[in-house]
Amino acid sequence: MNLRFNKGLVLFFLLALTGLAIFADSPTVAYKPEMQGAGDRAVKNAVKASAQTFRLVDRPPATIGQLRRRVEKDLPMIGKVLESRGYYEGRVASEINQDKDPVRARFNVELGPQYAFGEIQFQFTNNTDAAVGKIPPRLKKGAGAVAEDMFAEERRVLSQLQRIGYPFPALGKRSVEVDREHRRVNVALVFDPGVCAFYGGLEVEGLESLDVEYMERILPWKTGDKYDSKQVSELERKLLSSGLFGTARVALQPQPQGSNSIPVKITASERDLRTIRFGVGYSDIGASAKVIWEHRNLFGSGENFRTEFNYSPIEYRVNSTLERPGFFRASQSLILGLEASRKEPDAYHADQLISSAIVKREFTRYIMGGSGLRYKYSKVDQLDATEEFSYLILPVFCEFDNRNDKLNPVRGVQFFASSSYYEDLNGKASFVKTELEGRAYKMLWKGPRLSTALRLAFGSIDGAAVENIPADERFYAGGGGSVRGYEYQKIGPQVGDTPVGGSQVAEYSVELRLQPGKNLGYAAFIDGGAIYNDLADHTDRDFRHGAGLGLRYFTGIGPLRVDFAYPLNPTDEQEKKVQFYISLGQAF
């Protein structure tokens, strides 16, 4: 009895192992999916993303029969893809070619004519608001009848309703009529806007050190204003970008019965309010270092106090700023500043003291500007002549910035313009200093990541002869942040070995940036610049050009940059040697 049991048990295990071996070695039918005749790239992409024949190519079936069933199962789905792109007369057939290695699984597609949108109608139920009736269709009669365009139109209208006071709109009905005789698709969309709502009370949850008054001050609306979804999303963005919160969410609360007032609740968690940061760098002037201490809620209402110490062989500087958000309006800040510095480049030596009061306003998500008042005292020594200056300065500035990333942008544009009037309190020379700078970024290739960056800058000082402009206010060029490959401030007029600067500057930079992997990147660049005292008398020969190569190591806080640059057309007085730069963040 026991012997039979043991023999049976052994036989069972032998059969099991044999079955596993057969299963492990079971053949599969490797195949290559193909599609012919679909000239519309969107159709090809949609089919490849949806059809199992394409998606499961790495999991081939065990038999030709299973492959054939897989292909045939995809045929109705491909037909729906064709219809979603407006090809209502499209046809699709399949074939399997076993004479090829691997086997070919092919879809033969005949698109036929693309139907166009015909009549497009909007209807809004239970609503007499004139603003609602003014929402126009953007679907164009005669455009290709692409289903996704219709869905995008629905989302756009619902979003537009949320912008004009209706927080909970809905699509009531969608009617799509396919007119095969005229090859048109007629669309009728019925929307239910819901109840028009107005901002009600504010509830704040999660504050610890911040006062509720801070939230009330930066609200982009007042109680009783008509609801606007953009204001809600902009408030959430502003809270997260303030540096005060780790998380922040702005949500609508249920409306009280019979009321069109809608309460708003802000749920936030505060970050550590104090930060200390360190930075180091290296360029042709030597090593540099900085220390930054920041308190983002000094008095309990979101006041940002920041002190920065900078050291390099040519500059010692300490500056502090206090920024109060919500200054008279939600999108406006008051910035008070104080700075003391000693600068000792080859061009001049200067001791400076600057105080300022600036009002800055955020006009849109991408546009900001401001104005204010500055006082500057400086004691400047150049060419063994020492002078003291006292200026009252009236600056005006604006900036457009839609870059996707501040430290490592690959898309977007940044443009900065400023103009400052300098009134000499000692009765010497007054003047106007204007600076313009534009930067553009474009992704050329996503894999590997290849992008290009362009910088153009121009500056001019008008109203005074160059010899009457303080040496520390003139323009200089050369070095990191200007024209790499040349020594710091060594482009332009010189007296002996001393740069004396000028009243106009023009610069450009072009970079090609490659990031083939996660951490390592490369750059090739060319910079150029010139200093003038009379722009009308300049020639192209005045421009100095430098070129070089760079390495980038990408970290969680931005790319670590190492650049090597060489002057292409230096003057006889300028050194012909490779310059070396290290810093955090891209060059521009």
TrEMBL record:
It comes from the Bacteria. InterPro entries: Bac_surfAg_D15 (IPR000184), D15-like (IPR039910). It holds the Pfam family Omp85. Keywords: Membrane, Signal. Residues 297-588 form the Bacterial surface antigen (D15) domain. It is found in: Membrane. Its main location: membrane. Residues 1-23 form the signal peptide. Coiled coil: none annotated. The keyword Amino-acid biosynthesis does not apply. One of its GO terms (cellular component) is outer membrane. The keyword rRNA-binding does not apply. This is Translocation and assembly module TamA. The gene is tamA.
